[in-house]
Amino acid sequence: MRYFEGRPNVLSEPRYILYFNQELRNNLYHHVGFLNLQSFVKPGYSGWTRSRFPYDSEPNYTFAMEAKAQGAVVTYVHPGLPSEYPVDFALGAADALDVLCQNDEEVNTAAWYKLLNCGFRVPISAGPDSFLNIPCHLVAGAGRVYVQTRPTLDYGEWIEAFRRGHSFATNGPLLDFTVDGLGPGHEIHASAAGRLVEIKGQAHSIVPMESLEIILNGRVLEQVWARGDRTEVAIARTFNVNESGWGCGSAPPDIASHPTIGKSMPTRRRSTSASRDSPRANAMPPASLSNRSTN
What we know:
By secondary structure, this protein is of the alpha+beta class. The protein has helices at about 60-70, 85-90, 105-115, 155-165; strands at about 20-25, 30-35, 45, 75, 95-100, 125, 145, 165-170, 175-180, 190, 195-205, 210-215, 220-225, 230-240, 245-250, 260-265, 265-270, 290-295.
């Protein structure tokens, strides 16, 4: 609590904002980040032996709802299973998931896909949980989330865009992904007959990438292999989407040379009545799309 202020720090400038927020730590229920927090949520931890709070008290849900009442965004950081987070997403107590962190990205990605396939809106997030006082720890900024806002940086606007999933996460490539011109976190409406959509993606990296993928409901729908020095790759395709679901883009790493990966949150496509019996398609992430068709 030493640095917590509940507002942007005075060191903030027009091009960057410094805001000390909170990570709630529990060994059983897992760790949760509160962004845009106005008042510190107590206790800051529980379930740690030989501490002031050695026992598991209320579930994370209780503290997450207290944070959300302040207008905070709740994100599960460095997630793993078993954990409370699937329940909290179902109950509306969690907003985003750190898919890129110090844990295995592929495991986190598979868990993220399962949440999306359940119909939950789960924006992608990232964070390396870097401890600068520990040797051989992750570099600060090793996993990052980029949020699209207007040119003028405003913390409140950034928070709302993050909450809505107008973002992508990466530990290397920069990603651009659109569906009919709409970026990550948007919805596209369609009739039961389906709709032709144009999906575009571009990835740029200073180290080699393997490919750029379009993913629908968790499976690769289209893949373009990187050529030349493999630092740039683009894709543009038109698809007839006639099922309910979500989609995203992904730039997997060239494992043989550099372990980098980019991912991003689904652009949702949905109409008023969701089709529950349509077949599911699948593919893998950096930006995303999703859709629901009418009956």
